[in-house]
Amino acid sequence: MTKITYREALKQGIREALQKDARVFLMGEDVGRYGGAFAVSKGLLQEFGEDRIMDVPLSESGFVGAGIGAAIAGMKPIVEIMTVNFSLLAMDQIVNNAATLLHMSGGQINVPVVIRMGCGIGRQLAAQHSHSWEPFFAHIPGLKVLSVGTHEDARNMLGMALNSPDPVIIFEYTSMLNMESEIASGTNPTDITSAKIRRQGKDISIITYGNGVYKCLDAAIELAAKGIDAEVIDLRVLRPLDETTFLASVSKTHRALIVEDAWQSVSISSEISARIMEKIFYDLDAPVKRLCGVEVPVPYPLHLEDAAIPQVKDIITTVTKIVKP
Amino acid sequence: MIEFLMPNLGADMESGTLTEWRKKPGDTVKRGDIIAEVETQKGLIEIEVFEDGVINKLLIDEGTKVPVGTPMALILTATEKQVTPVTEEPKIKAKEEKQETISEPGKIKATPLAKRIASEHKIDLSQIQGTGENGAITKEDVENAIAKQVVIPVEESLKKAGEEIPDKSTTTNIRAAVAAAMEKSNREIPHYYLEKTIDMSKALAWMSEANKQRPVKQRLLPGALFIKAVALSLREVPELNGIWNNGLQVKSDINIGFVVSLRGGGIIVPAIHNANLKTVDEIMEKLNDIIPRAKALKLRSSELSDSTVTITSIGEGGADSVYGIIYPPQVAIIGFGNISKKPFAQDDLLGIHSLVNVTIAADHRATDGLTGSRFLMALNTHLQNPGSL
Amino acid sequence: MNKEEIEKIIVSSLKKIAPDTEPSKLSPDENIKETLGIDSFDFLQFIISLDEKLNLEIPEQDYGKITTMSSLINYLTPKIK
């Protein structure tokens, strides 16, 4: 076991990918000389050279398009969009090219591009730079969407994503970059198809992803002291959702709470709630509840920013109300 | 009605002095009209109203200094032509919300899981009080209902039975309800078991003499003695007379449920309320009334509810000992075996006495062995003094 | 009262307390309580019913003399005028 920061785990993942396959290269704003906007790729330019670590101009539409082109041509680009907020400028490339070319070419053209994006709130970057847009991307057929909620996934998901012949979007969480945790040393291939039960329980299923995973696990510890045994599920893959895992869990516990930072309307939790109702309605002993970001543009002042997303105490209060009304 | 507050006229303003009112109660004002003149550190400032309306009341006098945010006047806004004070609205809203939670007649709120379990066990949902969100009936509520002395399905059977022999479907319902209660008990209650052999010689002799002096209709049976003796013993060991609900709730009333075997299979458990306050004859009278009706499934719901403890008795010619399964949410069940003549040592001499094996199965969360043992000792003492029962 | 009438009363009283059985089909030497599955309460009701119909109290110490149909009939016949 090694103690490692989330940032370092991401970096090790990228390094290993660059070492294993010569077709892999990293491209993005400030990834080379600056060492990465969030220092994730620090030192990689010196280690791998300009052909493998490419600084791109300030044009998301341009460089994401270039990455898609490189992928079609046989390379395995890791395209870094500094944060999901800037991905809006590249949406046409991502949706109408990357996600759709396989279909429009009658199966002839694969686009094996991996697009990594920092996301989420927690650094007082205010309304335009704090988005949680996992729901937008999880909506689009043709994309595989991953959410890196733990250190072990930060280390291992990228390698599997690069094996995919089709586009993969990876959401990384800037608020977790400095967080330390222990992971198994070395390479541990993981899958990018399944949700994982991070904590077993019998009274309620708390379903979450990304930023929410550690928050829900912390809440579960305090809930256990109150006599409530919560099961915590890390979705990991937002498209396609591993419904087998969460449906089995809710069938067992009969109650569900979905926790995410994204706004509630038309969100991942909306989709999960609908599926639970559709498929295991008769196993429910309480309505499915959702705890999401407050429906406002993300505020700048710290106390308002904290109040705008579910925190550990909110999770505890909501679960308690569901289990012991 | 809206409050007109002392406005904040600058980032660092903390308070202002009202120097002059420009309007008086009854005046109609439009948005933008000057209502007063206020002095601040920055000088004299005319302040405006933000809403159309009619000045209702001026709250502070000219010359008064007040902090920013203090109500200065009340204005009846144009949208509230009827005089409805602000405080009434929340009350009306609260009443409406309350109405929603009361279910419409005929509409029972139960979770899908609760409905499924209830239909599997043929439980009538309209008899259950829900503890879920907005009063919905939950799985736990249905399970508690199933375990509760098989009251609910039996009530349905009671309505059906009438004068007929209880038919197979009725007893199947009862059987299913009992099965559910037993399963829950076995699953959730950690039972401990104790046994004591009690010499019934004195009690039977006393009873035989008593019966000689009673008409046949009032003849006593050992069952009545057992019930009274148990009731008196529970007064001395009250921890066994109660229910478990995340903690022991001792009950002051001693209502003894006793198991009646139904012809055709199944059991029903009517109760004798306040058994400790009844004489043995009164208890026997109740038994004579209840038991035949119990076997014909013609009991009243009051007779099937509120047991605080249960007695099961095997009766003549049956097994020597019977170990019961506790009926949740009770915390004990006392079993009486067959009274039979057996060798017995008394004063270092061997004789033949009528003995009965009494057992107690109790909830180990609520009490432990010592309590059960104290109970059995008390029971023995009472049965050795039948005259005082 | 003759033996047939006494037997009829016995059978109807037994039928009342054990409606799912056929007391008329009891053979003379079968143990009534065991065959019909009657417990001590039921038996007491039976004794009470006999008392009502025959105006005859059977004392507890005589219970052992009336365990079968034939012994019961033989016990009752001389006592009823």
Strand content of chain C is under 5%
Low-confidence stretches of chain A: none
Given helix and strand content, the structural type of chain A is: alpha/beta
Query: Could you tell me how far the N terminus lies from the C terminus of chain A, measured between alpha carbons in angstroms?
Result: 42 Å
Largest chain-chain contact?
B-C, 21 and 20 residues
What's the β-strand tally of chain C? 0
Listing every helix as H and every strand as E from the N terminus to the C terminus, the arrangement of chain C reads HHHH
The number of distinct helices of chain C, counting runs of at least 4 residues, comes to 4
What is the helix content of chain C?
Answer: 40-55%
CA-based shape of chain A? globular
- Radius of gyration of chain A using CA atoms only: 20 Å
Total beta strand runs of chain A: 14
How helical, in percent, are the residues of chain A?
25-40%
Shape of chain C: globular
Question: What's the assembly state of these chains?
Answer: heterotrimer
Radius of gyration from the alpha-carbon trace of chain C, in angstroms: 11 Å
Strand content of chain A: 15-25%
Number of separate helices of chain A? 12
Describe the protein in words.
The complex is a heterotrimer of chains A (325), B (389) and C (81). With 325 residues, chain A is an alpha/beta fold. Chain A has helices at residues 6-20, 44-48, 60-72, 91-98, 101-104, 134-138, 151-161, 212-225, 243-253, 268-280, 302-307, 312-323, and strands at residues 2-5, 24-28, 53-55, 76-83, 114-119, 144-147, 168-173, 180-183, 196-199, 204-208, 230-234, 237-239, 256-263, 289-293. In chain A, α10 (268-280) links the parallel β13 and β14. With 389 residues, chain B is an alpha+beta fold. Chain B folds into two domains: 1-97, RNA polymerase II/Efflux pump adaptor protein, barrel-sandwich hybrid domain (OB fold (Dihydrolipoamide Acetyltransferase, E2P), Beta Barrel); 191-388, Chloramphenicol acetyltransferase-like domain (Chloramphenicol Acetyltransferase), CATH 3.30.559. Chain B contains nine helices and 19 strands. In chain B, the strands form five sheets. In chain B, strands 9, 12, 15, 16, 17, 18 and 19 form a seven-stranded mixed β-sheet that branches. In chain B, strands 1-8-6-3 form a four-stranded antiparallel β-sheet, with no helix packed on it. In chain B, strands 5-4-2-7 form a four-stranded antiparallel β-sheet, with no helix packed on it. In chain B, α2 packs parallel to α3, α4 (151-161) runs antiparallel to α5 and α7 packs across α9. Chain C contains four helices and no strands. The longest helix of chain C is centred in the first third of the chain and has 15 residues, at 3-17. The model of chain C has no long low-confidence stretch (mean pLDDT 88). Chains in contact: A-B, B-C.
